[in-house]
Amino acid sequence: MKELLGPFKSIWQFLLINLIIGVVCCIIFVTDPFENPIRFFVGTLWGAIIFITQTLGHSYIQTLISRRYSWLEKPIQRLILTIFSVVVYSVVAFVIVQIIMHYLVFGTVPDYLLEFDIRAWIIPIVISFFISLLAAAYGFFVSLKNSIIEKEVLNGQMLSYKYEALRNQINPHFMFNSLNVLSDLVYEDQDTAVKFIHQFSDIYRYVLDSREKELVPLQEEIDFIEKFIFLLKTRFENKLIINFDITAKADELIVPLALQLLVENAVKHNEVSSANPLEISISRSTNSITVNNPIRLKNVDLDSKKIGLTNLMQQYAYFSDRKPEIETKDNLFIVTLPILKRD
Fold it and tell me: Integer distance in angstroms from the first to the last C-alpha of the chain?
């Protein structure tokens, strides 16, 4: 109902404005409108009904059109369709109201409308063009305003995502566990320890660099996640199995740290042990990457609020209509990420 009311804040405001318009129409088009109360009442009601049917009808039509044609994405098609639909509806609705009201008040049908006397049709045509211009201008500026607001909201959500991604990466637990692994390697396998330090350094360099990027080349994300997997497998050894073999094209993009978020979530929330190794699979189809793992939730309460996944969905919404798909199937937790393309 709110969409049909257009710029009016409430149904009462809508009715009041149309009542005032009805009074104005009565004064302009009715002969001797103040001769008696009945004449004034009928004239006012007649004018109000015309504008109520026009306003509600146009609002409904524009609601239907807006679902397929955006003012910002398809302005020419939207303008042409708006003017055409408004003119046709205005004339048809005006004539129908005139015929019904004329019959109710005078008991006859106005022949001058049915005979297509051009002089009788000038008023509805002029009114329809005027309404179409108002509808087009109102719709465009409302869409522009909503687009600006939505962009600002998404910008704020994206900043929140970037902060959350950085906070999740650079946190005491991750650093503590990595340094523990490193301290053991220094004594047990110095070559692996050196490689671990290099990979650890590259990971944090990538995290810091990606803070300023909205999207990154898929190949860069692949190089990063391979280093991240090395750290995890060095830590968990045969307790963690990660099947990862994907390639990227030069024009393919992805949200930064998206794959890392999914891999770390799997390790964070599920049992990783010698008795029950955790197996994570990362694969791609033509236009997407799928990450899945068996659901074996830890017995501890991690107080998960799914902030990371929520932020990831919001990040994708900023750049594409294609959204990540999250599902649970056959005891598997499956997330499918769209692969984006350069413009």
Answer: 38
Query: Where do we find the tokens 């944090």?
Result: 204
Residue in the block written with tokens 């129908």: 96
- Return the biggest CA–CA distance within the chain: 107
DSSP assignment of 213-235 equals -S-EEHHHHHHHHHHHHHHHHHH
Phi, psi of 261 (to 5 degrees): -60, -45
- Taking Cα atoms as reference points, which of 263, 261, 209, 204 lies closest to residue 233? 263
Number of other residues whose CB lies within 10 A of the CB of residue 220: 17
Nearest to 222 by CA among 311, 282, 163: 282
Same domain, 143 and 218: no
Tokens of 238: 């045969």
- Token code pair at residue 228: 């991240």
pTM more than 0.85: no
Per cent of the chain over pLDDT 70 is 73
Host domain of residue 258: 170-341
Record the tokens describing residue 249, joined without a space: 């094209």
More confident residue, 36 or 186: 36
- Give the phi and the psi of residue 67 in degrees, each rounded to 5: -70, -20
Tokens representing 283 are 């694969």
- In sequence order, the β-bridge partners of residue 279 are 241
Mean pLDDT of the 17-42 span: 79
Which is nearest to 147 in space by CA: 73, 63, 59?
73
Structural domain count, the chain? 2
Q: With cut-offs at 50, 70 and 90, classify the pLDDT of residue 121.
A: low
Greatest mean pLDDT among 26-40, 183-197, 250-264, 305-319 lies in 250-264
CATH code of the domain covering residue 184: 3.30.565
Same domain, 61 and 129: yes
Residues 181/196, Cβ–Cβ less than 8 Å: yes
Instruction: Determine the pLDDT at residue 83.
Output: 75
Question: Residue 131: which pLDDT band, with cuts at 50, 70 and 90?
Answer: low
Rg (CA), the chain: 32
Q: How far is residue 6 from each of residues 2, 52, 137, 248, 281, measured CA to CA in Å?
A: 7, 12, 12, 47, 50
